[in-house]
From TrEMBL:
<dbReference type="InterPro" id="IPR035654">
    <property type="entry name" value="LepA_IV"/>
</dbReference>
<dbReference type="GO" id="GO:0045727">
    <property type="term" value="P:positive regulation of translation"/>
</dbReference>
<feature type="domain" description="GTP-binding protein LepA C-terminal">
    <location>
        <begin position="545"/>
        <end position="651"/>
    </location>
</feature>
<keyword id="KW-0378">Hydrolase</keyword>
<dbReference type="GO" id="GO:0003924">
    <property type="term" value="F:GTPase activity"/>
</dbReference>
<keyword id="KW-0648">Protein biosynthesis</keyword>
<dbReference type="InterPro" id="IPR035647">
    <property type="entry name" value="EFG_III/V"/>
</dbReference>
<feature type="binding site">
    <location>
        <begin position="62"/>
        <end position="69"/>
    </location>
    <ligand>
        <name>GTP</name>
    </ligand>
</feature>
<feature type="domain" description="Tr-type G">
    <location>
        <begin position="53"/>
        <end position="231"/>
    </location>
</feature>
<dbReference type="Pfam" id="PF03144">
    <property type="entry name" value="GTP_EFTU_D2"/>
</dbReference>
<dbReference type="GO" id="GO:0005743">
    <property type="term" value="C:mitochondrial inner membrane"/>
</dbReference>
<dbReference type="Pfam" id="PF00679">
    <property type="entry name" value="EFG_C"/>
</dbReference>
<dbReference type="GO" id="GO:0006412">
    <property type="term" value="P:translation"/>
</dbReference>
<comment type="function">
    <text>Promotes mitochondrial protein synthesis. May act as a fidelity factor of the translation reaction, by catalyzing a one-codon backward translocation of tRNAs on improperly translocated ribosomes. Binds to mitochondrial ribosomes in a GTP-dependent manner.</text>
</comment>
<dbReference type="InterPro" id="IPR009000">
    <property type="entry name" value="Transl_B-barrel_sf"/>
</dbReference>
<dbReference type="InterPro" id="IPR006297">
    <property type="entry name" value="EF-4"/>
</dbReference>
<dbReference type="GO" id="GO:0005759">
    <property type="term" value="C:mitochondrial matrix"/>
</dbReference>
């Protein structure tokens, strides 16, 4: 009986392998056919001569790990842009951090040539990130597109970021092509996922394309759908040149390279162009298409997306969303896009102040490639001169620090993340004159005295959680512990539920996502969007050392969390702060009321060790002198904390 079962299992495995091998073989046959056609046309085609009617601009949008980069690889192989089995997966994920983490961080562009009925079509593909922290990359990429491929995992189904990306594309009036990926997996259920798409987005199941990007199954149907469904870009090639900068990067030899969508006219190497907002003129040195490697061209025409090098040297000259035009023409600027608003703030300081200039240069170059990061100069008595950076989320902050280390070899100190609070001050003669009765604070050291504050407001996000229904209980409990307010609950199908909660931003920036994955065994997904400010009872938690406040260790917390956070802080400081010659009382206080206290004992010297006899009064006299000396030292001593202590506390 056991032998029969083993043979049956082996037969099933062999059949599965043979089916997958056959699917891959079919893809290879089609791939050789189309690649041979495209290899001939790649060398002979003048991209500028391709008419607008045969240009398509589209993006791939999806949730994390639904196969965007794999699909992009297959599209590149199928159109002959790269060779098959070259051993280079995730071709458009060029950053080291992307390959290490297995996620897309930067939107990347590739121009594909696809031959249909003997005519070459220029398909401009933009592969976008899937994580909520990089939604700014998605919104900027959609500004240069007329259609999107909405990629959904046939195994996991619709996830939180799928919903967010759909409405982002829908709000931009883009054509949406629904595609189901990973249909080769044994747990894939395309029919169930098609019903989810229909119930959530009103997508007809007959329009959904079912593919396997890993095996290359049905890839040609995706390309044909792009050619057929994505509309022609609305451009004017006879008008004066206008181009929209929607991304940029820095090359140490060529300076700033701007990724430009040409809306009107054309531009050639040697032309002089002007930035609309900066009013600065530049001579174009290089023009190129990304296929996905740079291919130099002499001219870019309306409808194309290309890389422009014109000796820009700083991030102030290359503004994302700016319009480039011919120097002698008076034009209307192109409609840009709403800049991203930072959600999480952190301080960054060099390990040594001698590295300040190098770190400043590295931050400027990196923010050129990541325009969502905001930079403000900041100082710290403990850490010296540094910057206050704003990020879209915690993962965004982690990726930025990792890129800073990998690409520029800068080892910097990044403090614990915080958010921006809104405070309404009580009327005074000064703010009645200038109307500044509201202030924004993201640094606890700048929090004003509680007697001058009339109302405190904290940022709120609208979070979307999609989870199997069996995990609803623990997830709802966690949201209530984080001061969440449930706004909506929708059944996607018989097994999955979509929950919407209003959550304070400060409660989700650190460990909310990790806790959610732990409670749901990895099956739940989370996405959030800005939902404004709401009144909240916020206080400044001050840390006192022997009664003296240390602003660098203070924090802004909700009144209900003050005692818990204060107890954790003093316990941590008790273990970190080195013992000194005087007794140190570590206290956490709110508005003058002490909530928690720990003591760090002083070093003690046995002053009676030299005594060998005599009257007891000699012993008592030495102990009294020591006590008086300790008392005097405590009155005049300033407790000096080592720099490493601040680093250990602020980084946690």
């Amino acid at each position: 009986m056991i032998r029969i079962k083993c043979r049956l299992v082996k037969t099933l495995k062999d059949n599965i392998l043979s089916v997958n091998s056959y699917s891959r073989l079919l893809f290879n046959v089609r791939l050789q056919k189309y690649s041979s056609q495209n290899e001939k046309t790649n060398n002979t085609t003048d991209f500028a001569k391709i008419p607008v009617e045969r240009i398509r601009n589209f993006s791939i949008i999806a949730h994390v790990d639904h196969g965007k980069s794999t699909l992009a690889d297959r599209l590149l192989e199928f159109t002959g842009a790269i060779k098959e089995n070259s051993g280079n997966n995730q071709v458009l994920d060029k950053l080291q951090v992307e390959r290490e983490r297995g996620i897309t961080v930067k939107a990347q562009t590739a121009s594909l040539l696809y031959n249909v009925d003997g005519e070459d079509y220029l398909l401009n593909l933009i592969d976008t990130p899937g994580h909520v922290d990089f939604s700014n990359e998605v919104s900027r990429s959609l500004s240069a597109c007329q259609g999107v491929i909405l990629l959904v995992d046939a195994n996991d189904g619709v996830q939180a970021q799928t919903v967010a990306n759909f409405y982002l594309a829908f709000g931009n009036d883009l054509v949406i092509i629904p595609v189901l990926n990973k249909i080769d997996l044994k747990n894939a259920d395309p029919e169930r996922v098609c019903k989810q798409l229909q119930s959530l987005f009103d997508i007809d199941p007959s329009e959904v394309i079912k593919i396997s990007a890993k095996l290359g199954k049905n890839i040609d149907s995706v390309l044909k759908a792009v050619v057929k469904r994505v509309p022609i870009p609305i451009v004017n090639r006879t008008a004066p040149f206008r181009g929209l900068i929607f991304d940029s990067s820095f090359d140490k030899y060529r300076g700033v390279l701007s990724l430009v969508y040409v809306q009107d006219g054309n531009v050639k190497v040697g032309d002089t162009i002007t930035s609309y907002h900066n009013k600065k003129s530049f001579e174009i040195k290089t023009l190129s298409l990304l296929r996905p490697q740079e291919v130099p061209v002499e001219r870019l025409v309306a409808g194309q997306i290309g890389l422009v090098g014109c000796n820009m040297r700083s991030s102030k000259e290359a503004l994302i969303g700016d319009t480039l035009h011919n120097s002698n023409d008076v034009i209307e600027p192109l409609q840009g896009f709403t800049p991203a608003r930072p959600m999480v703030f952190a301080g960054i300081y060099p390990m040594d102040q001698s590295q300040h200039v190098n770190l400043r240069s590295a931050i400027e170059k990196l923010t050129l490639n990541d325009s969502a990061v905001t930079v403000d100069v900041g100082t710290s008595p403990a850490l010296g001169l540094g910057w206050r950076l704003g990020f879209l989320g915690l993962l965004h902050m982690e990726v930025f620090s990792q890129r800073l280390e990998q690409e520029y070899a800068m080892d910097a100190i990044i403090t614990a993340p915080s958010v921006t609070y809104k405070l309404k001050l009580k009327p005074t003669k000064q703010n009645l004159k200038d109307g500044t009765d509201y202030i924004y604070v993201n640094n606890p050291a700048l929090f004003p005295d509680h007697l001058t504050i009339e109302e405190t407001l904290e940022p709120i996000v609208l979070g979307t959680i999609i989870t199997p229904d069996k995990y609803m209980g623990p997830i709802i409990s966690m949201c209530m512990e984080r001061r969440g307010v449930q706004k909506n609950a929708t059944n996607i199908d018989n097994e999955r539920v979509m929950l919407q909660y209003e959550l304070p931003l400060c409660e989700i920036v650190v460990d909310f996502h990790d806790t959610l994955k732990t409670l749901s065994s990895g099956y739940a997904s989370f996405d959030y969007e800005d939902h404004g400010y709401k009144p909240s009872n916020l206080v400044k938690l001050s840390i006192l050392l022997n009664g003296n406040a240390v602003d660098e260790l203070s924090a802004i917390v909700h009144i209900t969390k003050a005692q818990t956070v204060g107890r954790q802080m003093v316990l941590r400081l008790r273990d970190i702060i080195p013992r000194q010659m005087v007794h140190i009382a570590v206290q956490a206080a709110v508005n003058g009321k002490v909530l928690a206290r720990e003591n760090i004992k002083a070093f003690r010297k046995d002053v009676t060790a030299k005594l060998y006899g005599g009257d007891v009064t000699r012993r008592m006299k030495l102990l009294a002198q020591q006590a008086a000396g300790k008392k005097k030292m405590r009155m005049v001593a300033n407790i000096s904390l080592p720099r490493d202590t601040f680093i250990d506390v602020l980084k946690k």
